[in-house]
Design a protein that fits this description.
Radius of gyration: 13 Å
Order of helices and strands: HEEEHEEH
Structural class: alpha+beta
Distance between the termini: 23 Å
Length: 97
């Protein structure tokens, strides 16, 4: 993994610790920003998701103004790869609670 922002400003530097997503409803906490396979990703979590112990993964791209924009990750394999990288970051490799 390399720089979490993929060469553009981080989500936190632009939005703070939380972001409201159009069409998704509610505010999401920015849990992590990471780079996997040369692409930048964000792991977000709403209050409801936190209660359930789940997260959502988004691809981070640079918008026309250079600021980060989020894209839904549609591919299950890509989503799983990023979720596993996030777990590794949280739990230190293969160790799971």
């Amino acid at each position: 993994m390399s720089e979490p922002n993929g060469g553009h400003p981080s989500l936190r530097s632009v939005f703070g610790d939380a972001i409201e997503l159009d069409g998704e409803g509610g505010v999401y906490r920015i849990v992590a920003e990471l780079t996997v396979g040369g692409r930048a990703y964000a792991v977000l979590q709403s209050d409801e998701m936190r209660k359930e112990g789940t997260v959502e993964v988004f691809r981070v791209t640079a918008g026309p103004d250079g600021n980060p924009e989020l894209e839904t990750v549609e591919d299950d394999d890509e989503w799983e790869t990023v979720a596993e990288a996030y777990d590794d970051l949280q739990f230190g490799g293969d160790e799971r609670p």
